[in-house]
Amino acid sequence: MRKESGFSLLEMLVAILILGILGAFAVVRFSSYIAEDQLQKAAWKVMADLSMTRSMAMKNDCQILVTFPTNNQYTIIIDSTNNSVADAGEYQQVFTLDPPVRFGLPETSPGSAASGADLPAAGSWLGGNWADKGMIVSKDAMGSINPGSLYLSSSKLPKVTYCIAILNTGSTQNLRMFKWDGSSWIAL
Question: Which of 26, 57, 71, 77 has CB atoms 3.0–4.6 Å from 137's, for a disulfide?
């Protein structure tokens, strides 16, 4: 009697099932990685744009306004009249965040603000003086900015938040970024 070698149908189905489960875990993990990368890139882009406003104010010898009209847009305005009225600017550029990234706190909101930042009121994404008129960069030699903070999150990452804040330390101001990892703020 000759014995057949090979796999039975049951063994092949079990192997396919195990590969399917492992593949599902890999897809979920990869999707989370992509969402984290997208949120981080958006946060760094907003940070770069806000940092650029100081040099714009000094170069154009005028005030710069950054307004946040919706939870996925921000506008940079060169205010040549220096009157802090958003529609008085001679130059205006609107930037839009790609979904699912948005300004705001996630569903599982951090209980406290990053060190020196302002936690916004419920339903808002701006804290401190930015909640009233947005970010205002003066045309003075330092490019002074009214203190405030801005929060970015993603609907795909319920525990991750980025905070961009102007921190006053003595006579200087620093634009800083922080990341909430679900349990604590990390300075970046």
Answer: 57
